[in-house]
Design goal:
Elements: E1 7-18, E2 21-32, E3 36-40, H1 47-54, E4 62-65, E5 68-71, E6 74-75, H2 81-90, E7 92-95, H3 99-102, H4 109-121, H5 125-138, H6 144-147, H7 157-169, E8 175-179, H8 187-203, E9 207-212, H9 215-218, E10 224-229, E11 232-238, H10 239-244, H11 249-256, E12 306-308, E13 311-313, H12 318-326
Parallel strand pairs: 3-9, 3-10, 7-8, 8-9
Antiparallel strand pairs: 1-2, 1-4, 1-5, 5-6, 10-11, 11-13, 12-13
Helix pairs in contact: 4-5, 7-8
The structure holds adenosine-5'-diphosphate and magnesium ion.
């Protein structure tokens, strides 16, 4: 994989297993500051486990190993649980999809946001409230000064998700990981939240790792894509390059399963077979039983990730695929 300048996050060879189940295997991932990287893949491919391992929340039953996990210059492999607690919020944040349960129902929004500034920055009550109102404005809450005394249930789902994002960026972290942050929201609101994340990455010069199973929603906002299947990154690279010419049949299949991105006039495609299950991964390429481009070697030899032309891809047929597209 190519080395990028100014990485907010740099992961090399991350593996996570739960007992006998290898949920994540040898994952390389890089999120530059000021860029949005979309991590894609069907349910069960290992996206959330990857995210949780990075921020130190893999859980007691997880065995995590990596050659490198760097947050800026900080080696996260050496971080203790206490150090992780300090780093989370201040230098990296994880936003989850369930905004209602992540907010405290008995505290006002102003108090929950203000608390962050009081605890981490020692701000006075008045300054903390002022900063809280500024943040609400930054994430697109209308009339923020009149809303800081309101409770979570007084906001819509989309507005609550904005408030969660406000809390995640309050201390200006260099890395924001959003794990399916829009799944519970309607389509229009989803697009607005993604636009918010995209604009914040520039305003705050923050690396954003956006986890989603929906390619349509990221095609407009992602700088880079990483596609995960059965615990591995199967294709990664510049978003424009990968979207225009996918080099892995799984990426191609994901693209063809999205109405807005499918070729005009082409049939909408459903990926055959079952989504990946890390406890029963087939020999050879893990995707081969579902792959319409599979040849004999795919059933026996697992393709290694190879870098070329601004992307990394692990597929025996990728040259054929790219040849077909460019010729
Ligand atoms: N705490 C856990 N214990 C055992 N297996 C787990 C645990 N968490 C996740 N897994 C397994 O790891 C795989 C990847 O899960 P996950 O990262 O949540 O997938 P995704 O987010 O891509 O949908 C799944 O098969 C899941 O069952
Ligand atoms: Mg998940």
């Amino acid at each position: 994989m190519e080395t990028l300048t100014r990485p907010a996050l740099r992961v090399r060879g991350l593996s996570v297993s739960f007992g006998e189940i290898p949920a994540v295997r040898h994952v390389d991932l890089e999120v530059p500051r000021g860029e949005l990287v979309a991590l894609l893949g069907e349910s069960g491919s290992g996206k959330s486990v990857t995210a949780r391992a990075v921020v130190g929340l893999a859980g007691a039953g997880a065995r995590v190993s990596a050659d490198e996990i760097l947050l800026g210059d900080t080696d996260l492999r050496a971080a203790s649980p206490r150090e992780f607690e300090t780093l989370r919020g201040a230098r990296m944040s994880l936003v989850l999809q369930d905004a209602l349960s992540a907010l405290n129902p008995v505290l006002t929004i102003g108090d929950q946001l203000g608390e962050l500034f009081r605890v981490h920055n020692g701000a006075s009550r008045r300054v903390a409230r002022e900063r809280a109102a500024e943040l609400l404005g930054l994430v697109g809450i209308p009339a923020p000064r009149s809303r800081i005394g309101d409770y979570p249930h007084q906001f819509s789902g989309g507005m609550r998700q904005r408030i969660l994002i406000a809390m995640a960026i309050a201390l200006e972290p260099e890395l924001l990981i959003a794990d399916e942050p829009t799944t519970a929201l309607d389509v229009t609101v989803q697009a607005q939240i993604l636009e918010l994340l995209a604009s914040l990455r520039e305003q705050l010069d923050m690396g954003v790792l956006l986890i989603t199973h929906d390619l349509a929603v990221v095609s407009e906002v992602a700088d880079r894509l990483a596609v995960m299947y059965a615990g591995r990154i199967v294709e990664a690279g510049d978003a424009g390059t990968v979207l225009a010419h996918p080099a892995h049949p799984y990426t191609e299949a994901l693209l063809r399963s999205v109405p807005r991105l499918a070729q005009r006039g082409g049939d909408l495609f459903t990926i055959p077979g079952s989504p990946p299950n890390p406890s029963v991964v087939p020999d050879g390429c893990p995707f081969h039983p579902r792959c319409h481009r599979a040849v004999e070697v795919c059933a026996t030899v697992r393709p290694e990730p190879l870098a070329s032309g601004g992307r990394t891809v692990a597929c025996h047929q990728s040259e054929v695929m790219l040849g077909v597209h460019s010729g």
